[in-house]
Amino acid sequence: MKKLLLSIAIASIPVALNAQSAIDAYAMSQTDFRGTARFMAMGGAFGALGGDITSMNQNPAGIGVYRSSDISATIDFDMQSSKSSDRSFSDQMDQTKVSCNSFGYVGAYRLNGDGLRTFNWGVSYNRSASKARAFRGQMRDLQTSLSNYIAGCVNDQGWTADELANAQYSTTDVPWINVLAYDGSLINPHSDGRSFQGLYGDGTNGYGEYEVKEEGGVDEFNLSFGGNVKDLIYWGFSVGITDINYKTYTYYGEALDNAYVNDDITGVGNVVIGSAMYALENYLHTTGTGYNLKLGVIVRPNNALRIGVAFHTPTYYSMKDTYSTSLGFDYSGQKGSVSTNVGETWYRLRTPWRFIGSLAGVIGKKGIISIDYERVAYNSMKLQDDYGNDYFYTNGDIKDYYKGVNIIRIGAEYRVDPQLSIRAGYSYETSPVNNDALNNKMDIYTVSTTPAYGFDKDTQQFSLGAGYKFGKVYADIAYVHRAKEREYHAFSPVVAYGEASPSNLVKHNSDHIVATLGVRF
């Protein structure tokens, strides 16, 4: 369909936004499984072990385990594959990204006191979330249309044709998707001028298609302090400064036969049966800066056992969004395009708090087995305007759509000889989405001109790795396979009428090859 629309001149101008949605809060609150090669090879189950640069981003008590200084850097080769499918069609997109995943320094100072044996400090960088992702697909045999969904919203909200025709994007209180749909004849008024209909009706058939491209991520810089008390208790805390830089392009279009189109796209005309094609494109650039605090303790009651506990406060962000959008259309040969005016939005975001409990066993001088449990309270996210006033209804949506997730991480290491170690790990993360939202039993509210959304299902990761020491120098390598499924929806279901939203199952798979080089001195 996009090829058929190439002859339509589609403008792309930044768009204003009045508020954020629960979907946006979740997108900006996610973190990834990332760190040094040793950390990733052992499934991230390091909460009771420490002695690794990634400790500063997980359980900062791990910095207290160090007995010598350490400096390291990590490179991550990320090979992604995203496959979208419905009952009769599938499509796949692949991409490869290379990034510096982590680097840091730990300074260790021996005090040799009866109580405090060491005092350590460190600085680190970690890409806590990568937003690089691309997928596309088709939704065959549509049973409704985005245009019908928008028309229903306009009718429920009581907007008239005169109000939509006279709305100005720079000043209007009318939702911009309503104005854009009216200007582009996605919705057409009845003769009374007080109600609207979409393009889909009796006898209409067709398909939809979509494409999503994302890039950027969340970078975190940590300043950490910790120590060792009597080789029994290791403590630590980290102050984190985070930076979000996220860009996304989304496209949704439909091709409909026997559609109910306006015979005169420049004004209110007669609705006739014809063909309809349209393409809605959105661009988003999100930036933000935030801060958080992490606290942790590791207890070693004997040489064989380690117990770790860590708590992460929410990250408190100041955010800025810049949008652009456009709509191109072809109704039975009548072609055109519409777009909106310039605008920006500033707001505040509070991400979830996190709790990590860990247990590790040391088997002689050869082996380690470790397990972590993490709880992430996605239902505690909060959005506010730039003045600190709560988005009351959106924060209610957060509690309706999302729940806390449970993450289990298991890792093992075996020392073949004093120089060579081999490692393996596994992690499992439950879906953050409440069942009613996931199963089309709840209306899903989005904002701006992007009605599409995605809901994540469970996530699994498998990892293998090895490490080798050359005197003070060490080199680690890991392979990580990550598998996640997502339900991608073109727009909200309409629960009152029993209408499910057009959706695809998207399978995101990524294979990472991670390499770390470091020196201990």
Overview of the molecule:
With 521 residues, this protein is mainly β. It has a single domain, classed as Outer membrane protein transport protein (OMPP1/FadL/TodX) (Porin, Beta Barrel). It has 7 helices and 22 strands. The strands form 2 sheets. Strands 2-3-4-8-9-10-11-15-16-18-19-20-21-22 form a 14-stranded antiparallel beta barrel. The N terminus is likely disordered.
CATH architecture: Beta Barrel
Quick one: CATH superfamily?
Answer: Outer membrane protein transport protein (OMPP1/FadL/TodX)
Instruction: Note the gap between the termini.
Output: 61 Å
Alpha carbon gyration radius: 26 Å
What is the level 1 CATH name? Answer: Mainly Beta
Characteristic key phrases:
elongated, 10% helix, 521 residues, 14-stranded antiparallel β-barrel, disordered N terminus
Itemize the secondary structure elements and their pairings.
Blueprint: E1 13-15, H1 22-29, H2 37-41, E2 70-85, E3 90-110, E4 116-130, E5 133-139, H3 146-157, H4 161-166, H5 176-183, E6 188-189, E7 196-197, E8 205-229, E9 233-262, E10 271-302, E11 305-312, E12 316-331, E13 334-339, E14 344-350, E15 354-363, E16 367-377, E17 382-385, H6 392-401, E18 404-415, E19 420-429, H7 435-438, E20 453-470, E21 473-489, E22 503-520
Brief overview, please?
It is built from seven helices and 22 strands.
